Each structure stands twice: as C-alpha cells, then as structure tokens.
Fold each of these.
Amino acid sequence: MDESLREQLTRIYAETKTIAVVGISRYPFKPSQRIPKYLQEQGYRIRPVNPRGGSVLGEPVARSLAEAAGLTVVMNRCMGETHAELGLGRGPR
C-alpha cells in the first residue's frame, strides 16, 4: 500500500465513528458478521444493512443503503483487514 493511500485510510478510520455494513449476516461464524463485530470491539458503531431487516449485533438493520443516511465514504475493501494492515488493531479473527 503506498504512503498516500495509507495516510488517507488512517484519516478515515480516525474520523469515522459509524460504519455501514452492507450484506451483514445473522450468522456469527460468517465473515460478514465476524468483521463488523471486530469493528464494534474497536469502538466503531456499526449500521447493519440487509434487506431482511431485524437486528444484528445489537443494532437495528437498515433494509437498504438509502436508509443509512449521512454516508461520507464508501469503501470496497475489508475494513477489518485494512484496520489491522494499518497497525490500528489486531484484525478480525
């Protein structure tokens, strides 16, 4: 990862308090729940997004990304693995 991207991602993690998790799973053994749980443990609030609704990890599930208003950054990468790669935590296990 080049230094410019590293700085940009580090800033995003420092400034972000809530993370929308599109496609979160209800099943604890799946990465799509394990990684958001890790991010919660690191102090981030997650906003689960899944068309089935309900609640996951103690948070209400938005049925669409349109319901998770206020997005400032959209990332197409694993935020748990990136968090570890930047040296900000141990990473999801």
Note: The first helix runs from residue 3 to 15.
Amino acid sequence: MLSVIFVLFLAACDSGGSNTGNDDGNGNDGADINIGLTEILPAAQFQRPLDIQNAGDGTNRLFIVEQRGMIYVAQNISSPGGADIDVFLDIRDRVFFDESESGLLGLAFHPQFETNGYFYVNYTASNPARTVIARYSLNGDTAEADPDSEVVLMELAQPRANHNGGQLVFGPKDGYLYIAGGDGGVDENSQNMTTLLGSILRIDVDNAEDGMNYGIPDDNPFSGNDSGFREEIFAYGFRNPWRIGFDELFGTLFTGDVGNARREEIDVVESGKNYGWSIMEGTICFDPPSGCDMSGLELPILDYGRDQGGTVIGGFVYRGSEVEGLAGKYIYGDFVSGKIWALGYDGDNVTDNTQIAEIGEFSLTAFGTDENDEAYLSTLGGTIYKITNGD
C-alpha cells in the first residue's frame, strides 16, 4: 500500500524491515570503503531539493533544484566563510507543484553553456497535465537566468499525476540530450512505442528539424521507422526511472527504476533495448505474475527487495579523487531505507555491491557532482551533503 507522504517516488512503503550497519545483504561489509557525509550550505533553507548540478563552466558553482520551481546557485562552496547562495531561476508561476510527484524535476546545462548560456529543465504543468522540456538562457551578461527566455522543446501529455521521471543529462560522448520519463501511472505505456512515456528519450538540441525545436539523431534506434514508433525513444520498458547518470569516462548510462511492490532495479541503458516493465518488475514476473515471456527483455544488472528498501535513487559513477575506494564505483541509494551503496561494474557484470552509508529513512532524493567530480546528495528535508572520506 502506498503512503501519501511518500508518493513523490511512488514506492511501496512497506519496507519489510531494513538492515543496519554496513552489511549490504550480499556479503559485502563495506570495510574497504570508509566515507563521511559532510553537510554543506547549512545556512540555506532548501525546500524539497530534487537535483544537484554543476554548469561545467569553470566556476565550480553548485545548482540546487527545488521541486516547487526554484533553482538556487551556490558559489564559493568550499569557502571557510560559507558559500554565497542566490536565486538562479524562479518559474513557480508555470510549474505545477503539489508535494507529490509533480514539480520542477530536472536540470541539465548545455555542454557549451559557458559560451551560449543555455540550460534545460524538466517540469510538470497543469491545464492540461503535461511534462514540459524547455530551454532557458541567461539574462544578458548577468549570472542570473531569464525566466522569460523559455523555449519549449516538447510537451508530453500526462494521464495521471505520478511516474514523471524527470532527469535530464547530456551524453558525454555524443552531446545529445537524454530525458528520463516514467509511464505516467499507466502500466501499458512502457511497452507502447507510439508514446514517449515509459522511455528514455534522446534528442539533438542543436539541430532542429521538421518544425520542431529539436532534431532526431540519425543513429537513434527507431529513427526513420515505418511502424509509428516515436523516433525520440532511445530505450523503453521503464516504470519510473528516478535519476539517470553517465559514467563520464566510458559513457555508460545507468538508471535506477522504481519498482511497484517487490523489487527495485539498476539498469545499464543501451540503445533500442526493452527493460521489461510491466511484463517484469526487476528480475521477477509482474504481468502475468508467473510464467512471463522474458524473450527480448533486458534484465537489470542488479535488483533488490523490500528487505533493503523501497524506492531506488539512481546516481552516477564516481570519478573524483578525494574519497578513497570509490573511484569507478556507481553510487546509488534508496529513499525508504536511507541506505547508500557503491556498486562495481566491469562492463558486463556487477563485481561488488557495498553499503557505504545510511542517512535515515524516507530522506534521500538525489545525487550530484561538482566540476571536480566530487559527490553530493540531497534530502527531502532540504539538507545537502558532500560525500567525503570518513574518520
């Protein structure tokens, strides 16, 4: 049964208990990785932060995305005197926010942001209910965004208020924009390739075509198809991919996909593949509940049950230098249990999966990095932590 308090990530909130300490339930005790969580920006009063980004422009600023429709920018984050925090963008007038799964859900800076000033957001709007993918730019020569500069790239009709996904990321190798979208609360959408829901999309924001404000990359898996499939689709079969992230070194795309009632999963996302929802939930059958046809489906590289949590929070591969033992590990966590793991992946198989921290139940919302690839996380209560070496 779902609890109203936690519908932000649409997870079954009967967590079935949770382990304590560093044991991850898979025999890894975390003894080789010792991390700490250091609160930064303690003077700020963030409201439901859902994303942490950097602009890649050499300033090492952090951008904190609030669900209600605000983006804040923090400068001098390592200053002993404290960071300077300012409003970067306020679009509360167009964001539909009801403290559930709606709101401002994602932010991505153009790879050439330093010269063109472009960035992109993913938010929900009402009347009619829809997801909006839009581009904004800076206000002249200032460091502040112009709320009147909006250019809408696409809108996706939302049948219900949940399962919006929301993350935006630029591919480090191809420069295309990837957009994570949930199934809109309708199971069948994820296997329906004539809709954009339940898929991760891939578009070219620099080369508009066919009367749209974006283009379709020629190597998208369904580009030019004659079956009515949406050409924007990069991969499909997702329920609610909450936080996608690339390995900046190898270009591997990871996502967490929030389960229904039994399993949470981590996927490596590849072109044209079907990730199974709603035929499967993780590695088990969902519809039908047994004997499902798994042919043609891509199974997760890892899934876990309610003994470990109830809402996966996808993260990123750590490529920083400050935290010993984390290099090359995929960092992810769980909202319900508050557990955080470091997962080793060699390109074919999971090599290890170690619990490295626990921050409290019903708290974790997102991970992010600064320009030095150091790691941060946010909590629903508004705290931002940096992942550091432990004592």
Note: Residues 1-30 have pLDDT under 50 and may be disordered.
Amino acid sequence: MDDLPVLRAGDADRDALARDLREHFAAGRLTEAEFGERLDATYRATTIRELDALRADLPDPRPLPAPAAPRELARRRIYQDAGAVVILNVGCVAVWAAGGGGSFWPEWVMLVSGLRLLRDGWRLLGPAADQAVPSRRRDRRRLPR
C-alpha cells in the first residue's frame, strides 16, 4: 500500500467524511469527544490516506439498496421484451410499406412475436410463475458453444 501514490484531499472529500462522521455520531458509534477529534483531524487532513484512516474502523453509513424482488425483475423483463416486439413489428411494417404494400405479410411476424410475448408474460407473471426461467436463459447464454 505504501507504493501507491499519495493523493491530495479536496474540500469535497473532507466534507463527505465530515457528513459521514456526523451520521456515525448520530447513530451512537462515536462519543462526543471522538467526534470532535475526528472532525478536527478531517479538516486538517491533506491526503486521502489520512481521511481513510479516520474512517477505517467505521462502517459505510449509507445502506446498500435493497435488491429487486423476483416479481419486479420479471416485470422489467417483460417490458424489455415488449419493447423489442414493438420495434420488430414496426420495422416489418416499414419494410412492407417501402416495398409497395401488397399482401400484409407482417401480420405473421406480429402474431408469432405477440404469442411469444404472451407466453413469456404468463410464465413470468402468471399465477404459477416460474421465476427460474430468466436465470436458466441467462445461464444458457453464458455456456460455451
């Protein structure tokens, strides 16, 4: 760690640590004397290493965001799939129109892509939703071919 360059601390770095120290003090992790000493040392610090030493024994005061529920992940997946279906169908209609019309062949693309979207929606969001479907697909894509 000594071979790393010593980086200078800026006002924003010191202010961020002071804010964190206030949260730790409010949470009861620091006594009033410790808080005062660390706050003074924070504003005297000139390097990032000195600031890191002042927070070394304290946890990160900002909690991690809660992971999304499986049902919410499935809903996002369906929205993404629906967007892809719309883009595909609009593209097919544009090709059909640019080709001079005639028999409306994009209806078959719309039918197949719409049925696939309904099937996946039922699997992911239906009453007996199989939440393992997205992970199986993801795992299958990662396998070497």
Note: Helices lie at 11-26, 32-44, 48-55, 70-98, 106-125, 133-142.
Amino acid sequence: MSYYDQNYGHWENMDEPGMVEFYHHVQKNSVMKKCSICGDMVKIQRHYDKCNDCCDKIESGWSY
C-alpha cells in the first residue's frame, strides 16, 4: 500500500511499528487549507501554510 499526503509527501518505512498509526494521526489532525504558494486547496496540518509539492520544488532550487 502506498501512503502520500501534502504534509510529508511519500511515506516510507510503513512496515515499522507505529508508522501506519502515526500516518492516520497526521491525517486526522490535518485540515483543508489554501497553499500560500500555489493556491491549491490541500489537506495539511494546521501549522503548515505550504503544500509538500511546493516545498519539494523549493528544496530543488525553484523560486516563486
């Protein structure tokens, strides 16, 4: 099974104890918000303002 969200991107090591439960905890505590960069509505944690897709681009050297 593949796990992905706009908080952390692709989740790895999901066979480690507690990882699936942590993933579900993150999903439960995420809300629909507008990304401050691309403007898309994404499900992210309350204290985030950027989606993972935009953060990956920034880390790869893109500028907005």
Note: The chain has a mean pLDDT of 94.
